Amino acid sequence: MVDAGLGRKETLRRLAALGKSPERIDGILISHEHTDHSSGLPQLLGHWQATAYLTQATCAEILKTLPEGSSKKMARVEHIRAGERFIVGDIEVSPFSVPHDAADPVGYAFRVNGTKVAIVTDLGYLPELVKFHLREADCLILESNHDLEMLKVGPYPWHIKQRVMSRTGHLSNHIVSEYLADPEGFDGRAQFLVLAHVSETNNNPDLVQISASEALNRRPSEAAFRGQLLIASQRVPLGPLNL
Fold it and tell me: Residue 239 — pLDDT band, cuts 50, 70, 90?
């Protein structure tokens, strides 16, 4: 499992909605300490007796916010480092650094049986290192957080708007569209391209769909995207996706 922003009850409900009720999960990987990615971690570790995989700096930040009873559930922790691969079960995991306003944020790429899945949300721009780790993904889950105009005229305080728009904030639809249109950046080979972490205040799924589709249509014919474009919802689970 990647990230644990939901509590035990809601996580299990969403898994059940997909026909999944795992009795065991070997590992829960955390990308960074912000609560929408980590607040359910103690509950889920206790439920599955799983191991948490996260960087030392991320772990330290999470522990600062936990009451004593919850922190005791963080006994099974493996500290990881960006750039150092590790194995969970039969899955090879490659964590990589991303630009976000957190202690030590990472994205993840997974390989098993010749298949690659990459997931990266919460980043302000797409450096070449991130683009490298996203290449050759059979399934790519990428943030398309906000529409710039909606964000500018929206209800957030100005200092929050500046944070979201910064190079350690979140990806806009425009930044994502420029990446998707460029075959030098996005190789287009994914069977599934999932755009996620869509703001409910500063974006909407139709805008994300239109922006991404227009960008993909700008690709040269020899590098055409032939996979499926999906927009993830914050409320309804997506999938399962068969690779």
Answer: confident
Go through the domains of the chain in sequence order and give each one's CATH number: 1-81 (3.60.15.10), 114-243 (no CATH)
For 28, half-sphere exposure in the C-beta direction (CA atoms, 13 angstrom radius) is: 29
pLDDT tens per residue across span 80-91: 999 999 999 999
